[in-house]
From TrEMBL, chain A:
GO MF, any single term: cytochrome-c peroxidase activity
InterPro entries for this protein: Cyt_c-like_dom, Cyt_c-like_dom_sf, Cytochrome_c_Peroxidase/MauG, Di-haem_cyt_c_peroxidsae, SCO1/SenC, Thioredoxin-like_sf
Protein family per UniProt: Belongs to the SCO1/2 family.
Name of protein: Methylamine utilization protein MauG
Binding residue positions for Cu cation: C85, C91, H186
Localisation: Periplasm
Function: Involved in methylamine metabolism. Essential for the maturation of the beta subunit of MADH, presumably via a step in the biosynthesis of tryptophan tryptophylquinone (TTQ), the cofactor of MADH.
Source organism: Candidatus Thiodiazotropha taylori
């Protein structure tokens, strides 16, 4: 009614042609009518997208509170705003949409009762509690129904952890000359958070519309009454590994309800960690790390090794660093490749193992052919299908020629320059610091926190050490757990591969979530023939060692898919299914592997247990990796193209 | 690239430090002196007893100011007989171009009741600081300039105190509701009972 009245008034009195925000070009859908039919309430799922972090804020009366206290036990819509924002598709859009919802609350008691709106300022210097109070004064006359709170923080110190936890990248805007202009640049995101503090939807500009939000809320409310509240522990699980996912996360992309979860590169900012400190006192659940007497850990060596690990110039054609197969945010392995791919797309015949907790490994490589990290380094550096350097001397000479390394080896190794030995020692020192534990499991088993592990995961643990027999090889001790016996076993995976026992059709992922079954014959026409792989036999020449591979640790296993030495199993559930079937029968099958007869629930319990092994410090280690310098060809570097040096970057 | 970002961070921290220093030192809102669109001295004090709707902008503003002024005008018109208890003010953030005469023609296009206010660079900057208005001149390629500015509407009660800040983006219905609510409250407070 008002709208009609106002529009006619406007037409009558304004000589200028009047435009409202809804009619301005390029305004977001949230200002107008929804351009598509909404799915029926309750007909779709809104899985948890992670945990809504807590933080310290100040309400509009100047009281310090925690963000979770503000959320109370209601569903919450959380928007990040600043009061001097003027981008029509930024903060004003969230205000507009919130206003629409506030209006709907007058008519809808359930909505008013269950949902709360919170606008949090990311400009604490200007948005004092008083400014926030003046904002909330807007709604003194809008009726009691529905709550919309305006909050701020005491300072950047309180604000920054909140922004980081919600992936909000805020920058002062600058013009082309670098002068600051009015406002901040930020990507609008509004979070729908459930009473258990799980994020259930994230609305970007194109999806921020009051009708969609209300539809989502009603869907959640309906499902809540059907299913009961979701398990808190399950939600908390994904919290420690916030950074351990691809920046462009396409999981669920094939579903209509897919909303982008892509991470802004800026949100994956690096933050150097005290790696030496971490290595010297490993997190709960791990023993002290073994360090060779001739290579004690020092900050200089760790720092140098970290620099080398991320240096693309360590490969023949200056493109390939260690970190490109051992990708920090992908569990220090490659989540997207069953088997690694080296320079120029050359196929590698095995899966990249994770670097996490490699400090404890006494056998390296899947066939256990190397005995120390110091020596292992040279494998990938020299393999023709990995970093492809022609010789040890070639690598050493190249590093001597790169200015970045001037004096660094000498400083780290008491005057010794780069050599086969010092290079290995430096990289090994960095890798050795990537120790990760203090998982939910560790807190439960070694920290005495009875609540740390969900009931499902506890049942999974009982199966792990009991009926399923996993712990025979993936060992758990009284005061620590390495989840490996540092030995090699034949599970039949290698046998199956060697014998060419493969299904006639193979699933091929052609787009996220879209899989086509392709005839094996077609693949063989275009693919490289699979190289032979007989496992441990290649090292010992003992026929009884055929198809034996090393037992990997299971720490962080939820982050290190795909699994097995050839990456042939994509999910933990597939791995559990594989062992439940008793592996693949062959004359040398390890006697410990036999059909397990697990029920559906038992399999789920085991998977839940495996998911509880994600270390509490993985974000710290990944953020540290993001902070590492990435060595790349620069001016003055030796160039493989010109044979002399690179002239222009 | 790393260097560029570092410079940006330095700039950012410089801006923030600056912001902190004045945000702390000055009270929010309050009286101010400018020149009205009839070239007469103006003080906010003069409007004691009225509800003031204060808006900042400039006449060369291509989109937001005309839209907001039209919305403001529509609200004033919709108030009917209560309109006389309300005063709309438009403070120009562009002392270089918006003389009282220019403002006179501009604001009266929207609503005869609106008053345009101009001042020197310093005077305008002072008012903007008081109300936490962020604005900056933006030079254009062709030699002209625009002014980036934040867009809020400030509601000032009959005693001259800042009563609410209406964020940009809320529909005119909301402003009308809030103004009516404030007027009713003022009537209760101001009448000797």
């Amino acid at each position: 009614m008002y709208r009609l009245l106002l529009t006619s008034l406007l037409l009558a009195v304004t000589p200028f042609s009047m435009v409202t925000a809804a009619q301005l070009p390029d305004t977001a859908p949230g200002y107008g009518k929804l351009g598509y039919p909404l799915p029926e309430i309750g007909s779709y799922a809104l899985p948890s997208l992670g945990r809504a972090a807590n933080g310290e804020i100040i309400d509009s009366r100047g009281q310090r509170q925690s963000l979770h206290d503000i959320f109370s036990d209601r569903y919450v819509l959380l928007a990040f705003i600043y009061s001097t924002c003027s981008d029509v598709n930024g903060c004003p859009l969230s205000s507009h949409v919130f206003y629409k919802i506030k209006s709907a609350m007058k008519r809808d008691a359930e909505l008013a009762d269950r949902l709360k709106m919170v606008s949090l300022s990311f400009d604490p210097e200007n948005d004092t509690p008083e400014v926030m109070r003046l904002y909330s004064n807007n709604f003194r006359y809008a009726g009691k129904a529905g709550e919309w709170q305006f909050i701020t923080t005491a300072s950047q110190q309180q604000l920054q952890p909140i922004l980081r936890a919600y992936n909000q990248v805020i920058q002062r805007e600058v013009d082309s000359k670098g002068n600051p202009v009015v406002g901040f640049s930020h990507v609008l995101r509004v979070f729908l958070i459930d009473p258990d503090k799980a994020i259930r939807n994230i609305y970007s500009v194109d999806f921020l519309h009051h009708e969609l939000i209300i539809n989502d809320l009603k869907t959640l409310l309906r499902q809540e009454t059907v299913q009961g509240r979701m398990s808190k522990t399950a939600v908390e699980l994904d919290e420690p590994a916030r950074l351990s996912k691809p920046g462009d996360d396409k999981q669920g992309y094939e579903e209509e309800s897919y909303v982008t979860r892509s991470l802004d590169l800026e949100s994956r900012r690096g933050e150097a960690a005290d790696l030496l400190g971490i290595a010297n006192s490993p997190p709960l659940g791990l023993p002290p790390i073994p360090v060779p007497a001739d290579n004690p850990l020092t900050r200089e060596k760790i720092e140098l090794g970290r620099r080398l690990f991320f240096d693309r110039r360590l490969s023949l054609n200056d493109t390939f660093s260690c970190a490109m197969c051992h990708v920090p945010e992908q569990g220090f392995t490659s989540n997207e490749l069953a088997m690694a791919v080296g320079i120029e797309g050359r196929s590698v015949r095995r899966n990249s193992p994770t670097v996490y907790n490699s400090a404890y490994a006494s056998l390296l490589f899947h066939d256990g052919r190397e005995e120390s990290l110091e020596q292992q380094v040279w494998g990938p550096l020299l393999a023709r299908n990995e970093m492809a350097n022609p010789s040890v001397g070639y690598v050493l000479q190249k590093i001597r020629d790169i200015d970045d390394y001037d004096g660094r080896f000498e400083a780290a190794f008491d005057g010794r320059g780069v050599s086969m030995e010092t290079l290995g020692m430096a990289i090994a020192s960095y890798q050795r610091t990537l120790v990760s534990a203090n998982s939910a499991f560790d807190r439960w088993r070694y920290g005495g926190d009875k609540q740390a592990l969900s009931a499902t995961a506890r049942r999974g643990f009982d199966l792990f050490v009991g009926k399923a027999g996993c712990a025979s090889c993936h060992r758990i001790s009284d005061d620590h757990a390495l989840f490996t016996d540092n030995d090699l076993h034949n599970t039949g995976i290698g046998y199956r591969e060697s014998m060419g026992i493969v299904p006639e059709k193979q699933p091929i992922l052609v787009a996220p979530g879209v899989v086509l079954e392709v005839d094996r014959a077609v693949i063989e026409q275009v693919g490289e023939p699979p190289p032979t792989d007989v496992g441990r036999y290649e090292v010992t020449q003992n026929p009884n060692d055929r198809w034996k591979y090393k037992t990997p640790s299971l720490r962080n296993v939820a982050l290190t898919a795909p699994y097995m030495h050839n990456g042939s199993l994509g999910t933990l559930r597939e791995v559990v299914d594989f062992y439940d079937r008793g592996g693949v029968s062959n004359e040398l099958l390890d006697p410990l592997i036999r059909p397990l007869g697990l029920s559906e629930t038992e399999k789920e319990d085991l998977v839940a247990f495996l998911q509880s092994l994600t270390g509490g410090n993985v974000d710290t280690l990944v953020a540290d990796a993001f902070a590492a310098p990435v060595g790349d060809v620069g001016k003055g570097d030796p160039s493989w193209v010109h044979g002399t040096e690179v002239e222009v970057r | 690239m790393g260097r560029g970002r570092r410079i940006l961070m330095l700039l950012l921290s410089a801006v923030l430090t600056l912001a902190v220093s004045w945000a702390d030192s000055e009270e929010l809102g309050g009286n101010f002196s400018l020149t009205d669109h009839n070239n007469r001295p103006f003080e906010l004090h003069q409007l004691k007893g009225k509800l003031v709707l204060l808006f900042f902008g400039y006449t060369y503003c291509p989109d937001i100011c005309p839209t907001e002024l039209a919305n403001l005008s529509a609200v004033l018109n919709a108030l009917d007989d209560q309109a006389e208890r309300v005063q709309g003010l438009f403070v120009s953030l562009d002392p270089g171009r918006d003389t009282p005469a220019v403002l006179h023609d501009y604001v009266r296009h929207f609503n005869r009741g609106l008053v345009g206010l101009a001042g020197s660079e310093e005077e305008v900057a002072q008012v903007a600081r008081q109300y936490r208005v962020d604005y900056r001149r933006h030079e254009k390629e062709d030699g002209g300039y625009s002014i980036d500015h934040s867009v809020n509407l400030y509601l000032i009660d009959s005693q001259g105190a800042l009563s609410a800040v209406v964020p940009y983006g809320l529909p005119p219905q909301h402003l009308l509701e809030t103004v009516r609510g404030l007027l009713a409250e003022m009537a209760d407070k101001d009448s000797p009972s």
